[in-house]
Each structure stands twice: as C-alpha cells, then as structure tokens.
C-alpha cells in the first residue's frame, strides 16, 4: 500500500501536459521588473537607486527582518526606475526595473555545470549563506528558507522531508528538475541535513511520476540517509502538514509548526537552490517555470530569470491562444489570476497557466444541498459550509472557535462543491478578519 | 492580444460533481424499483408516478415563479425525485386528487416554505406521505393486491400488508409464529411479490439502486448500513427474548418501507447530518425508533415517523458531531 495523508483530499484531473518537455533556457528579456517583496514576511530594503549599474547576482535589496529575504538582480544592466507595478497578488508593489545590458555575472559565482559533491561549510555557515542567497520556499508559499533552518531553542529537528509531490495539476517544473538535476538536488538535501543536524531525509514523490521515483531510487544509493517515499496521488499532498502526515505519520497540531513534531519540510526546488547557493555561490535569481494550458501550442518548462514579464514565457510557448479567458500564476487549485501579462515572474512562480474562456468563468451558485462533501474532503477536518455561513453572518468569534485559521486554502471544498458555492472566498475573508481581531486583542 | 481576461480567486477548476448530476443519479437509482412496481401494479403504478411527478414539478415551478418570484430551479431534478418518492410511498390505487394534494403538501409545505432545495429540515416526500396517512388513513392503508394475485383470486382486490397482519394479530393476542404462516414467503417479499406501497415492495430492486448510488458516490454507506444494522440487531434482541411476541429481524428488514427509507429517504442529503459520525448516530436513531414504533406503537409501520423525528435532530447532531480536526490529540 502506498502512503498518503489520511483525512480528506480530492482528485483533480492531472493534465501534466509538459511532463516530457526538458527544461529550456528562456532568452533574456529587454527589461526585468524585480519586486522587493517576493516572500512571506517583511519586504526587503532597497540598496540601489535609479541609474545604478548592476551585475547578475548582485544584491539589490536587503532582508527587512528575520522573516524576510534578500533580493538579487537577475540580469546585468542599469536600474531605469523604481516603481510600483502589479505583481501576481493583484496589488501594485515596489519593484526595481532594470534595463538589460549583456549578461555579466558577479565574479564569485561558479557558472560551471560540474557537480560539486563535497560539503565544506559548517552548519552555521550554511545557514548564513542560505540566508544571504535569498532562498525562499520554491513550492509556492515562498517562506524564507533560513527561518526553517533556524531551529528554535528547545526544539530538535529529527527528520527532513523533501517535497517532490507537485500535486497541483498542470505543473511539471519540480518533476523536470527532479529528472534533470537529480544529483544536485541530492547534494542540496545533504547540505540541508547538515544544516539541520539530522541523519534522515525522505523525498516524497507521488506515483504519477514513476520516472522521478525510479531515478531517485537509483541515485540515493550514493547518498547516506536519504530515502524515496512513493506516495499515492491525492491533492493536497504537497501541503506541508499533509506531507508530514503522509511520509512520517506525524500530525502537526493546530496552530503549531512542523518543527513541533520534529519535522522540517523543503521543496525539491529549494534543495536545488541551496545546492547552487552553497556549492556554486549562486544566489536565487532564476527558477524553473511551467507554461501550460489546454490550448497552449507548445506547453513547456523554462528556466527563467526573476523579473521576466509573463508575456515572454507565453510567447516562448507559442503565444496567447485566441480563446484564452484567464491567465494564472501557479497551479489551478491555488494559483493567482494575473491582472495583465506584464506581471513579473518571481521566486514563487511555479507556473503560468492559460485557461480557455469556457474554463475561466465560475458556474452559477446554487443553494447548499448539505451534501457534506466539503466536510469530507477538507484535509484539515474543518466544516467549510459552516465557516461560510458564519462569515456571511459575521460570527467572527464562532469562526475562531471553529478553527478557521487552520484552513490551508487548498480549495478542495470549492472544487468539490456540487452547488459551486464560493466557500473559499468567504473563508479567506473570515481568516483575515479573525487574524485582525486577534492582533488587536494583543495590543 | 488586447482583451479582457477573467480575474478570480483560486481554485480555478471545478470537479464534475453537480447538483444536477446528483439528482439524476438518484433518479437512475430509482429505476429498478420503478420497474418492479410497474411489473406488479401495472398501469396503476404508471398513473400514480406520473401524476405525483407532474404535480410536484408543477407546484415547485408555480411557487418559485409566482410566490417566491425567484429563479426557477425545476430542472435540477429534485422535484422529480420528490414526486417519485411520494408515489413510491402510497398505494397504487390512491385517488388522483389525493396524490395531487400530497404533492402540494410535499413541495409547498415540506420544501418551498423553507426556501427551496437545501433549506428544508424534513424530507419533503415524507412530509407529503405522513400528511396523507394522517388525513386519509383508510385510503392510505388499503393495499391493492398485485396483478398476479388478482389473476389467481379475482375477489381479493385488496389485502393487508405483512406488517398490518402482524400488528392486528398481536393486538388480538395471537402468536407471531402462527401469524407468519399468513404472510408470503421471505423470498417473495425480497423480490417484491407482496402488497404495499408502490416502491417499497422489492428489497432487491432497492438494493440495486443502493449499489448504484454507492458506486457513483452520491451517498455513503453510513446511513443505510447503520440503520439496517440497528433494525436487525434490535429486532433480533426482541425476537430472542420473546419469539412469540416479536417477529424475526429478516421480517422487519423486508417489510414495509425499511429498505426504501434506508436507501432513498434517510440518505436525503439535505435532511441528514454532515459528518460521518453524525450519519451513524442518525442511522442508529432511525433504526431504534422504527422498531419501537412497529412493536410498541399504534401504527404498524414506523419508518416514515422515525426518519422525520431524526430529521428534527439533525441540527443538534451537526452541532455536536464535528469532524476530527487535523492535528487534534486523540
């Protein structure tokens, strides 16, 4: 029996159209727009001004606190403007706009493709360098990685879990990375293990990627303490708490963090970024992005510099199909609809997904028929229908008691609702209001 | 490209599970029982079903259009289900005007008063049935013999159901063991060769419907299985204690509306609990109440009342039967 998480979950159609397309390098754009807030936490503080010359890998914004991350230039050229530009969130955020001139990298970055296996740095040095390289969780949540590697006093990491699940339909960026950079990821995992001082690491991969499972199974023989865990396909297995449950059979309590049960989870893409940062001195300024959609001419996986406009990726995939109705950054379950095609690629962009017009609009909302499907698919054991009713009635205290803040916004409830009710829209409103109320209570 | 694109929150995809699909799956699941009722009751069954369905759909449409003045949703199929289930719960010789009145009460009082599909606390078809049962007890409990029984004995136009025979007999102080000789063999009852309401006669046909709905994931096993299981266990206990006073569990499972109730009435999503734990309590409650009413109450049959009573408890069950929170200590 393959492992999986036990509570809830749904099975959206996988649609992995680009799974057999090797990663291609996207040509440099003319300008890049680099937001100084590409992560969860405080925005970074600007280090450059208009007219400054920058190189590839040069730090252009500095971490704005412990939970924050450095931002590096992804191109060489001149800063033409500091402006507020729409990012994937749909809001205008401060961005550094750079005119691309050539491709001149910082001297200390090792551009060679050679695999470097020996880890010479100590745990503290690794932590420092990960933080310096501006690495954030590349699965989509963009939580600064150095925070996850800094184990709070009194806690101990026992197991490292690598997220190679990629349970979002359509996306294949992690899948391709696992096939093409297997050794690099494994070295990255060894680095993370050293930083965390753990001797066990598990790579969770869903069984719809048998090639990745086989490849890792073959390669892990050369690396001590790393084990591949094939998982039964189910969304949202890539959710941090769900993955810990599936791989290690541990449940992170409500309101607690993975480290409270001795687990640390990192995405395989993050492990690759860690490898490049530690072994190659390369900060995080590019990533693999899947460009896909049912009508897209040539769905593919691209290695893209941060700050590249989304349209450049779409052009590389054959342009915008005539019948496009919605463009999403990320996967179909948790991705964000973009307001225009100039929105820049950031560290958290895992995919660009083009929906056909007929898939774009929501269906008419009908009465709740109390079928209870939302309750049975909720991976967190919540009652989405009830939470929605409570938000409609502004019952904020009741919402808090019913654990609205535990919601991971996976969208399973809304996906499954036969009446197409906007459950998650309301729950998000509930979450943000309850968070505000809790914060004002502390003051 | 210069055109407007849609902006909306995630998720951007929807499952293929819709209200319409649920309702039409239930209708398909009702087909075997429908076929059996037509087989045994002939044109009378067709007449009752057509009138009940037409009246239910008509009343829903009229009320939505002219009283609520909202969007009409008759195409979702739920009114058709109410009509079929109402027809399944009445004798095949019920006068036309009573069927129409039953449909009006089912849809008008049982469903639309509360705001339509999804808002009603009680199963609409059962509201209609119980209304008819209380208002016209004679018409509602005069069961026509089926076509084959008539062919053998043309004088036996109507006959008592096994439950009525047992109830009457026990009241007169007869032994259950003797009374059982007056009712058809269990195998006949299983396949539907027995008197009763239209749709309840064949356990076999209803179970096919159950399997179909389970396969389509329209319902889960929790309510039907716990309800039938409870009826089996509870009646076995009574039967074991006093076999001369109480019938055996198989008798209870095969007679009256137990199968129809467990498979199609108690599982109505709108009026049953949300969580699996709640569904189990609900099913057990209906089972216990059914056997209590059948063995100790005034009516020979207790399924409808048991379901309606447990419908009342659903909000309470929902309040106290929360799903287990992820990460909660056991």
In a nutshell, what does this entry contain?
With 443 residues, chain A is α/β, with parallel strands linked by helices. Helices cover 28% and strands 19% of the residues of chain A. Chain A is built from 14 helices and 17 strands.
What key attributes describe this structure?
heterodimer, A: 443 residues, alpha/beta, Rossmann fold, six-stranded mixed sheet, four-stranded antiparallel sheet, 28% helix, globular, B: 330 residues, 2 domains, two-stranded antiparallel ribbon, 16 helices
Blueprint (SSEs and pairs):
The complex is a heterodimer of chains A (443) and B (330).
Chain A: E1 24-25, E2 31-35, E3 45-46, E4 53-54, E5 59-62, E6 71-72, E7 77-86, E8 92-100, H1 123-132, H2 145-149, E9 159-163, H3 173-180, H4 182-196, E10 201-206, H5 210-219, E11 226-231, H6 240-248, E12 263-267, H7 268-280, E13 286-292, E14 300-305, H8 310-316, E15 324-329, E16 336-337, E17 351-356, H9 357-360, H10 373-377, H11 384-392, H12 396-401, H13 412-416, H14 423-442
Parallel strand pairs in A: 1-14, 9-10, 9-12, 10-11, 13-17
Antiparallel strand pairs in A: 2-8, 3-5, 4-7, 5-6, 7-8, 13-14, 15-16, 15-17
Chain B: H1 19-41, H2 43-68, H3 78-88, H4 96-109, H5 124-135, H6 137-140, E1 143-144, H7 147-152, E2 158-159, H8 162-171, H9 176-179, H10 186-191, H11 203-215, H12 222-241, H13 249-254, H14 258-265, H15 276-296, H16 303-320
Antiparallel strand pairs in B: 1-2
Helix pairs in contact in B: 1-2, 1-3, 1-11, 2-3, 2-4, 3-4, 3-5, 4-5, 5-16, 11-14, 12-14, 12-15, 15-16
